[in-house]
Amino acid sequence: MKNLTPLAQNYVDRFAAELPQLPGHQDPATAQLRTNGLNAFADLDFPNHRIEEWRFTNLNGLTKGVANDAAEPGETSLPNPEFDAGHTMVFKDGRFDAAASQLGSLPTGVELTSLAAELDVGNADLIPMAAPQQALVALNTAFMEDGFVLKVAAGVTLDQPLRIRFLSTNATDRPARHMRNIIRMGDGAQVTLLEEHVSEATTSYFTNPQTSISLQAGAVLRHFKYQNESIAAFHLALTECDVADDAIYENFSLSTGGKLSRNELTTKITGSGAKSILNGAYLMRGKQHCDTTTLTLHTVPQNESAQIYKGVLDGEARGIFQGKIHIAEDAQQVAGDQLSKALLLSDRATVACKPELEIYADDVKCSHGATSGELDEDALFYLQSRGIDEKSARKMLIDAFLADVIEEISDDRIKAYFSDIATEWLDQV
């Protein structure tokens, strides 16, 4: 076995002792699934800069060990706002909290359970048995403790948004949460999902949520994610989605929290007429680091994808955008667009962008672009010359910069919710 980073070695060393406390430990198939995950992780270790997809994000601060220390004085996350959803499922410190959840009115054809409950009754087949090829997926497979499992039958529409809230508090001494989420939607099913990762804590912890989504023909999933972890936390998330004929996957991620966060999205378009719409905004200050990495795979003809990501960076914050659109050899008549823009409010803030197109077909329409810069001084001067103070003028320009990407959100309630969060962040600039 190769020499591992300290945190990776710690996971390997304590696996045998922790296995009897993990969900489904009594089921041989689940135990084997976890062992396969651990063995794969021991071979891979945590990602490092020698891996191309990770060369802009250094995990040394995590892999040397997550210290359960308070954040530096004066560093606080945004207050956690409220959203009045029709249905709410709450996980507190990595475990399903039935008392805080409101799930009694889910319609026929919608099943929502916790992963821990599924594993405890032997449903290990929800997770692929093959050894994972990605380090964080392998680690999650070995130590997954809970998460949500959503199954929606063909033709069923959930009229109200479903809210999944992952809450971290100071009431636990466990410095990691390995959540595994599964979404399976039948033909023509429709759901709006709000996924929140929020914190009441000021401590350092590590969240490793992994989400697997399958959309059958004509299904529509509007998936909105808000990340507002502790300012001392590490948040490394992966979402993978398969999109069949005429299905639509819409994802919008808004990130304001975390010491180091990464939102990775892999969308595999396997049907004609399908759409993948990936948008987002990240608002970072201080020494925060936010990485957005996307991979869109067009495997068949006649489908489309679009991406717009915008970042606002203040202080010494660092933003990363890596977006790749891959079009297979036989995937003709495909449209793929990608755009990344970053606004730097400080001369110490930095951004790295790496948009990519990998095209093996000749009948396609694709574009990509990335820009970064400071506030327009002429526009700022103009507003001030009209009697607007400098702070208000700056806020107006930043708000205008973000407005067009937030406008891409198809659900009006979520749009208003995310707009209010952005406004609150801007009030602190």
From TrEMBL:
The UniProt record lists the SUF system FeS cluster assembly SufBD N-terminal domain at 88-164
Note one Pfam family from the annotation. SUFBD_core
Superkingdom of source: Bacteria
Tell me which residues make up the SUF system FeS cluster assembly SufBD core domain: 174-401
Q: Which InterPro entries match?
A: Fe-S_cluster_assembly_SufBD, SUF_FeS_clus_asmbl_SufBD_core, SUF_FeS_clus_asmbl_SufBD_sf, SUF_FeS_clus_asmbl_SufD, SufBD_N
The Swiss-Prot or TrEMBL record describes its family as follows:
Belongs to the iron-sulfur cluster assembly SufBD family.
> NCBIfam families from the entry?
sufD
Name of this chain's protein: Fe-S cluster assembly protein SufD
